[in-house]
Specification:
Length: 340
């Protein structure tokens, strides 16, 4: 059973659902965690998460399949990335089993908000790990909160599978060369708010960041990774220690190679070599695959396939990825976790 919502036009907005999961870390260990109806966190005013950004988050989705069942897409990969982020910020790891169990509990408890199959909408899960407690020096917390809340979502970028335009950030980076770019921490997103506002104010979907050391290579989009399809059927996505290792990107690298026989490459994407791409897109959990119509870089506006139509390879990859996520296409071993 689902509630009545305008499933096709959800966009990407917060909606307070009945239940979320919360677990506390104290005296060196996690408690068992539980579901709660309280959507408010009660924290010490001196919590390191608030002052020094000792926090991390994740994003994954639950999908309703044709037979009405619900499934998660590679939640183990989000759990592992949260563990790597936790290591980087000296936070305790959330074990993979606990992470997946919590995700399942939240989906089950809010089952009526998992969008119906065929609407394209999904239930977005937002795991959050924060350092809390009475600490004022710059050092890691002794206590932590791990929570997962959820909301039904549609397209992240307005166009969905229709191309939209992006602008290269020349004057701001989201991360430093040896900083926290590969970790999913709020600070990276705080740094992206100002250039993001500039992009939105100028009718671009989002910002494309260049590598912070040389400003010659594409890193990623503010909220997704970047990929390009060359005229000779290569799938290329940037390799950099300061971008988020996207679960979607690694899934596409696999599908491009194993299912479509493309050459799948993680490597340099030089900003002055955009001509070699027949198509380009942004990929991520929220973004799914969002085709890039054109990129504004300085005075040059570079159009890839078309500003209005999605390219054939991008569409093929989109159909394969979402077919797997919604259970219509056989998934590679281990990619799907059923919520029963
Ligand atoms: N890059 C950034 C900056 C992101 O915020 C996201 C979203 O999670 C991604 C890339 C895509 O990662 P994933 O495919 O794991 O969602
Ligand atoms: C996601 O795709 O899950 C993200 O975290 C992107 C976010 C900026 C909305």
């Amino acid at each position: 059973m689902t509630v009545e919502l305008d499933w096709e036009n959800l966009g990407f907005s917060y909606r307070k659902l009945p239940f979320r999961y919360i677990s506390y870390y104290k005296d060196g260990k996690w408690d068992d965690g539980q579901l709660t109806e309280d959507a408010t966190l009660h924290l010490s005013e001196s919590s390191p998460a608030l002052h020094y950004g000792q926090q991390a988050f994740e994003g994954l989705k639950a999908y309703r399949t044709k037979d009405g069942s619900i499934q998660l897409f590679r939640p183990d990969k989000n759990a592992e990335r949260l563990q790597r982020t936790a290591d980087r910020l000296l936070m305790p790891q959330v074990p993979t089993e606990k992470f997946i169990d919590a995700a399942k509990q939240v989906v089950r408890a809010n089952e009526e908000f998992v969008p119906p199959y065929g609407t394209g909408a999904t239930l977005y899960l937002r795991p959050l790990l924060i350092g809390v407690g009475d600490i004022i020096g710059v050092k890691p917390a002794d206590e932590y909160v791990f929570t997962i809340f959820a909301m039904p979502v549609g397209n992240y970028f307005k166009g969905g599978l229709a191309p939209t335009n992006f602008i290269v950030s020349e004057h701001y980076d989201r991360a430093a060369p040896y900083g926290t770019g590969a970790a999913k921490v709020g600070g990276n997103y705080a740094a992206s708010l100002l250039p993001g506002k500039y992009a939105h104010d100028h009718q671009f979907s989002d910002v494309i960041y260049l590598d912070p050391a040389t400003h010659t290579k594409i890193e990623e989009v503010g909220s997704a990774n970047f990929f390009g399809i060359t005229r000779d059927n290569q799938f290329i996505t940037p390799l950099s220690p300061s971008i988020l290792p996207s679960v979607t990107k690694y899934s596409l690298l696999y599908l491009a190679k194993e299912r479509f026989g493309m050459e799948a490459i993680e490597g340099d994407v030089k900003i002055d070599e955009l001509d070699k791409f027949a198509e380009a897109g942004a990929c991520g959990t929220a973004a799914v695959i969002s085709p890039i119509g054109g990129i504004q870089y300085r005075d040059d506006f570079h159009v890839f396939y078309s500003e209005t139509e999605v390219g054939p390879v991008t569409r093929k990859l989109y159909d394969e990825l979402t077919g797997i996520q919604f259970g219509d296409i056989k998934a590679p071993e281990g990619w799907i976790v059923k919520v029963d």
